[in-house]
């Protein structure tokens, strides 16, 4: 499947799966509702009680793990960066999270919440991006962090004619 080479304003699950290697049960972003190049995005995660993490965190009090909120922020930023590289004819090869700084958790995220990841680019140099992320539920800040990641790319191979 070839990714469109135009800038995108949003990404559904099919585009997300083209951009990052994560899959269930570790795919933590359902869609990007707003993308501004590689500058900023808003990602959505619908937190469901059916997710396996709630069997142990915590039974009877389903709290979405804070580490997974940070991972979801990183995945949202990763989709945005990968999409910008795909638009340049480059295919994402691997994405590594490098650092997490200043992480703070303000309120618990519960099963049934809609988690929004608001990501804003702070810096970009070579293949390393740095983003500030805020996670919100119903407009209230639930977590925040600065995240950096490395994205390795390779030239896209043209698809063979069918």
From TrEMBL:
InterPro entries: FabA_FabZ, FabZ, HotDog_dom_sf. Its main location: cytoplasm. It comes from the Bacteria. GO terms for biological process: fatty acid biosynthetic process; lipid A biosynthetic process. SUPFAM superfamilies: Thioesterase/thiol ester dehydrase-isomerase. The active site is at residue 57. Its EC number is 4.2.1.59. Belongs to the thioester dehydratase family. FabZ subfamily. HAMAP family: FabZ (MF_00406). This is 3-hydroxyacyl-[acyl-carrier-protein] dehydratase FabZ.
